[in-house]
Design brief:
The complex is a heterodimer of chains A (303) and B (495). Chain A is mainly α. Chain A has 11 helices and no strands. Chain A has one domain. In chain A, helix 1 packs across helix 9. Chain B is of the alpha+beta class and 495 residues long. Classes of the chains: A mainly alpha (303), B alpha+beta (495).
Amino acid sequence: MMMTVQILFIIFAPFLFLGIINRIKAMWAGRKGSPLIQPLYDFLRLLRKGEVISKTTSIIFKIAPAVNLSSVIFAFLILPLPAIGAVISFDGDFILFAYALGLAKFLAIVASLDTGSSFEGMGASREVTFSTIVEPAFFILLGTLALLTGQTSFDAIFNLLNSSAGYTVLIKILFAVSLIIMILTEGSRVPVDDPNTHLELTMIHEVMILDYSGPDLAFIFYSSGLKLVLLSSLLAEFFIPSNSVFSLIIFIGIIFLTAALIGIIESLIARARMSHVPQFIFLMTALSLIAFAVVISFLRGGL
Amino acid sequence: MSWAEIKNLQSISLKDIPELSFSELRSQLLDGISSGKRLVQFFGEKINDDIILYTILADDERSKLFIALSKSKEGDVYKSLTSSAKTFHLFEREFYEQYGVKPEGHPWLKPVRKGIAGVSSEETPYEFFKMSGEEVHEVGVGPIHAGIIEPGHFRFSCHGEVIHNLEIELGFQHRGIENLFLKNKSNPIYLLKLAESIAGDTVIGHAGAFARAMESLAGINISRRAMIIRTIALEMERIGIHLGDLSALSGDVAYTTGNAVFGALRTKIINTTLAICGSRFGRGLIAAGGVNFDLSSNLINEIIKTLNKIDEDAELAAGVLFSSASVLARFEKTGIITRDTAREIGLVGPAARSSGVSIDVRSDHPYEGFMLLPVYKLTLNTGDVFARAYIRYIEITQSIKIIKELINLLGEGEVIVQNKKIFPEQFVISMSEGWRGEISHCAVTDNKGQLRKYKIKDPSFNNWLAVALAVRKNGISDFPLVNKSYNLSYSGFDL
């Protein structure tokens, strides 16, 4: 029962996640906003539409959306979820997690270059630049976790992290803030990217998918929503008490709180200038390094 | 200078315009520019085989205009003025495109509205500037855009994310509107509709300029009440567009709150225009000889109430917008045009004032309501997107004050007077300050008292070059922001 609930939740969460962000933004702007499940309506509408595929593209362009979605789903299997646990778990699985997301991104970038459009090339170049900054920071974060717990699979890491109360709140907060920066970057949200803009020259993620239409576009929308839910789930992992009946509720709650937080951030600040975005992402590197230093001194009994 | 001295809206007999030889005209134009005068008009007219070139310079500080003309034939060549004064560059290109009189030594004789195919089939088609090297790439945007905006092509030469050169290609909306004025010269109602359609966002500005030109040619004096209603409508148009642009500028940097609040305020003001004349953009309000709609006392109360509300809310919203660090990080030092550049290329309107150039037709060459009360020229110095955004806000508050003061001066009287026939062989220039800057219309009448030439200059004609210069060395992702801070018209340029 719990398992069914959770699987259904993960399937529908991307729509609700985006719906919550949009609703919060509308509230700040003094508007009523679109229905919470408007992203689901959009998804169904796109599924019913026909497709236009540019003649200059190759097979890469056509397989990218499917590979994208399946990679994100695959990454979900590695995360230990409250009612399901980790479907796939082995020592060093977090590296597979990172590279499943990496594969999705690689395909998206190559597919956008496949169209030969100068806009999409520009978007791809920005996406690669920002990803190269995020990736090392993410690995510092995961390495720190492994160092702290002495484990190298997500399942074991989070089991240990959440069962002993001894681990400091400080480390969890550092992890959480770095992950939020990662969610904003990887999820193409303000201040890194603006999902609502119509200006091709300022886009990152949106411009890379300009040539997609119909079901392929629906897949892309869905997988980018799912990626947001995936990263929020990773954030939630830090705060789920193990062996608790409330763990599923807390899990769901944290995911929606993250959506609300993104909505609030997007309402309160403007998007950063493109040349200043790396500074924002380096904040994640800095926080991960601080977490790393804290863990080192913690292990030496310094704290 | 042997030029005829005139005032804004003062019609002058064609015989009184001094005719100079081309070389005299050239040296006197350059003298005028170097002594601080500003080029307002430089356009041709073809009569039989003669091509008449009318030139008008403005002495803004003394509220004077100077006019002279020169005659030449098609295929003539003259020494280009642009190499000595950049403000001529687009005027000379236009004159060459329309009449084939070639400015020798012009650095960039690109077609203005006829596309890159050029003026005549004998010439080689125009080619865009090209850059080559490592990491150099070219991006072409438009003429079909992602949003619902007018068509224009932008060719960026970039090094990585940095723009080194932007070339703007316009003319996609060329409707031949100046010729339409001549074709329909016997139908004054149609001409007004035409003037309203020069640029869809400057209905009052252009229709007002046209109506005043016709009234001046016919010697009609309209009532004070009609003049004030026109001025109120003009200022409401200014408030409406400025609010809309502040909303769009907030939207371009993904600042949701500013986008929503200013957008809602814009609706309030344009709905008030709707209440006055039945069109949110002021179509149908202005007539030759006055205005078609009077203001009832209920409506006046409504206007004052709306303005007070806008004043209050805009102050709050602007306070938040212009103190938000993340917004200022985008606005400040983006797309800078210095005071010297602004003067050199002849910018007008808020674009010029935000770069520290103190020109405003409402104050320099006053007309209608602005003759009854002084308008202070507001200037800022930084010339960046921030200055162009902030000047919108302070102009909104200024316009609200102007409207409130004018309402007290309304007086009584008919708002429209009988139309009269226009005088033969006259010339008039009608300048006004639209929200985008100086609008100037010139009309020439033939010996039967009908239009012989109608010349329109939208402020976009002066300002498009500034967009291309402002984005140099800026990130390509900042281009939409710089472009929106100017918000120039395509149809007003293309005519």
